[in-house]
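Data card: per-record layout.
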Amino acid sequence: QDPAQGWLSYATASCPAGTRLTKFTGTWQVPQSPEPSDAFYSPWIGTDPADNLNLLQPVNPWFGNEWAIYTEYFQWSPENNLDSNQQGANSGDQLVGSIVFNGEAQQSYTVSQVDTAAGGSSSQMSVPVQTDNNGNYKNYSIAYVVFEKTAYCGDYPPEEQITFGNLTMECNGKRITPQWTTSFVEDCCDFRAHVVDSQTITMTWSTSAPSLPAEKIEAQYAENRKHFAARKAAKSAAIHAHQLPPQRKN
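The structure for this 250-residue chain is written out next.
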């Protein structure tokens, strides 16, 4: 259940009681690249229903030696994880993440991540709203701004801060002024979220702070390496499939 283990600093706000989140958008810059490592982490914005079991998120992960963008859906029960196509991103690129409700008839959200740099890319997908045990569609109402996943402190971006701006929430189609609160799950590398105003959240950390115990980080890095290998294999397979000549029809 969210907030999940691995979340570092985060901010959260909710729609007024009885209303649905119909749009949530925000912008941020791709962080500076640290030295290559086995670290895997990401800044992102997202939304959950009241039970915190169905997370929609445009993400911006660091894969140990490069930045990427894609959108993700994580469902806790029954467990299900969906990702859109991944696109590369460069430090300093401006990203625009958005989550938009497609209406009562469709009962789905379009989650998108757009890189506004010249020649930039985008990635999006549509995700149906899960029904509860009574067959009713869940009601998304919680917004999150998050930096997640543990690493050695020296493996995080060297600028030690990120700013999420232009944060806009609409509930039942009407723009609201979100009342942000901040917290953290993993007390790691002095990660903290700070409310600048209703549209701006900053995250700060220290690359020189004491790291979490090495055995915890090394266990995380071992999982990361498996993830990196699977990602590399998937990219290689996609490239190979694209290069194959068309099959001849008899």
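Known properties of this structure: Helices lie at 214-243. The chain is about 10% helix and 45% strand.

See the next section for split statistics.
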